[in-house]
């Protein structure tokens, strides 16, 4: 992928991010504590900002910290945000905290994924609902959106697949806006091909973006679980790896689902 910074230097990258965020030069200047004239000069290449100003502009545009490093490099500065592997000893406290969150969410399913939707870690609740999924789909790197919508994944057990598939596709599309990536764009195209046709009429239970998951467990009793999802981003992280992680947790939408998960998951 050709990054925004490589394609047009700092000036082009800043214009691209501002356009993507639908922010005017004046609004950006107010947010960053500078003048519209200065922003205009930076975007035209007539002025080269210092490192602190680049960081302020990037923060004002909610540019992910991976791409902030690219902006700094485009302007001739060294990156300021480290990017460690998750198994780095310095990140051990973070890993421990994440595992505690996953375990503490039991018996309800929860996963931690990276910016591409690839599985980083999961709890026993997620292992339970993915029983019977084609082992090939569960071979690392495991794409959680693909597991959910693939015909050899969970798709055949999702009762409201026609609505929920497009909810997932919308979530991946939104992530591709936050973290531009050719890989995410390819994943969106793949998921669109896997999904049923977008429903012309929404069900009476449709709640806009709040689309509950109705999932059958399979097996002899084949119970229907009704789940809602929550997403948590690590917005205050200064390490690229941690900042790109996302916690996706499933919660029971009714007492029957809560009781069923407590029975089905042993922890």
Q: Could you give the count of β-strands?
A: 5
Percent helix, as a range, is: 40-55%
CATH topology description of the largest domain? Beta-Lactamase
Q: Tell me the overall shape.
A: elongated
Named CATH architecture of the largest domain: 2-Layer Sandwich
**SS element count, helices:** 12
Distance between the termini: 43 Å
Low-confidence stretches: 1-7
Strand order of the largest sheet: 2-1-5-4-3
Order of helices and strands: HHHHHHEEHHHHEEHEH
Broad CATH class of the largest domain: Alpha Beta
Q: In this structure, how is the largest beta sheet organized?
A: 5 strands, antiparallel
Work out the count of structural domains. 2
Concise overview:
The chain is an alpha+beta fold and 267 residues long. The protein has helices at residues 4-20, 25-32, 36-43, 51-60, 65-74, 92-104, 124-129, 144-149, 161-178, 182-194, 240-243, 255-264; strands spanning 110-113, 119-122, 213-216, 224-233, 246-252. It has a 5-stranded antiparallel beta sheet with strand order 2-1-5-4-3.
Quickly list its features.
434 Repressor (Amino-terminal Domain); 5-stranded antiparallel sheet; alpha+beta; Beta-Lactamase; 11% strand; 12 helices; disordered N terminus
Question: How would you portray this structure in words?
Answer:
It holds the Pfam family HTH_3. GO terms for molecular function: DNA binding. This is Transcriptional regulator. Residues 14-68 form the HTH cro/C1-type domain. The chain is α+β, with helices and mostly antiparallel strands. It has 2 domains: 4-74, lambda repressor-like DNA-binding domains (434 Repressor (Amino-terminal Domain)), CATH 1.10.260.40; 89-264, 2-Layer Sandwich (Beta-Lactamase). The chain has 12 helices and 5 strands. The chain has helices at residues 4-20, 25-32, 36-43, 51-60, 65-74, 92-104, 124-129, 144-149, 161-178, 182-194, 240-243, 255-264, and strands at residues 110-113, 119-122, 213-216, 224-233, 246-252. A 5-stranded antiparallel β-sheet has the order 2-1-5-4-3. Helix 4 (51-60) runs antiparallel to helix 5 and helix 9 (161-178) packs antiparallel against helix 10 (182-194). The radius of gyration is 21 Å and the shape is elongated. The two termini are 43 Å apart. 28% of the residues are buried. Mean pLDDT is 90; it is low at 1-7.
